[in-house]
Specification:
Elements (H helix, E strand, L loop, with lengths): L1 E2 L2 H5 L10 E6 L1 H18 L7 E6 L3 H16 L5 E4 L8 H8 L18 E9 L3 H11 L6 E9 L11 E5 L6 E6 L1 H4 L3 E6 L1
Parallel strand pairs: 3-4, 3-5, 5-6, 6-7
Antiparallel strand pairs: 1-2, 2-9, 8-9
Length: 201
């Protein structure tokens, strides 16, 4: 167990208790290794149809993870895979509850998927898989854009506690957790540093 760094607190990974303890799940190197492995798995699984492969990251942190996987694929195979970002705000089944808690409705940022998903094998990318409701919302949002040949799911951390029958095809790390804990992903693109921690709420 460790104390959260000042940097971690500054990027919103701590609550009001400044000395909150945490357990590191993945370091920067661990994230890089996990994404390289996921990238290799995606290439192997889609070896016969790489021309129809696309990556779509779920906002917020799934989007930079999708871009990193695309960079790995470019490095490994010299292949340019189209990348998009998906806003699932309007497809969440808890958006009204979230709005009531915060006194306002979540901000709709808008998707950016600059290609036709119809007929493609689309790999949805997100940071944490928990109940499965975010993944379901992402599939709903994606299907509004077209009819992919297949939808796969790539996740950096699977923490369990599924409420829907959803399973990731590619997982960076499986982490058993309790419902009293949270898993918080920090990425350079969104938080100024890389790391994944488990925090007791």
């Amino acid at each position: 167990m460790r104390r959260l760094s000042a940097g971690a607190r500054r990027h919103g990974t701590a609550n009001a208790i400044e000395a909150q303890t945490f357990t590191e799940i993945l370091s920067k190197d661990g994230i890089d290794r996990s994404l390289r492995r996921i990238s290799h798995e995606i290439l192997e699984r889609n070896a016969s149809s790489l021309d129809d492969l696309a990556l779509v990251g779920v906002l917020t942190r799934g989007a930079p993870l999708a871009s990193r996987i695309a960079d790995n694929v470019r490095h490994f195979e010299g292949l340019e895979v189209p990348v998009g970002a998906l806003d699932i705000t309007l497809h969440r089944d808890d958006r009204e509850a979230l709005g009531a808690q915060r006194g306002e409705y979540p901000e709709v940022r808008g998707s950016h998927v600059p290609f036709d998903v119809t007929g493609k094998t689309v790999v949805l990318v997100d940071d944490v898989l928990y109940t499965g409701r975010t993944a379901r919302a992402a599939m709903d949002a994606l299907l509004e854009l077209g009819r992919p040949a297949a939808i796969r799911l790539a996740i950096l951390v699977d923490r369990g506690h599924r409420e829907l029958p959803i399973r990731a095809d590619h997982v960076g790390k499986n982490v058993p957790t309790s419902r009293d804990e949270s898993v918080r992903v920090r990425l350079v693109e969104t938080d100024g540093e890389d790391g994944v921690i488990r925090v007791a709420d």
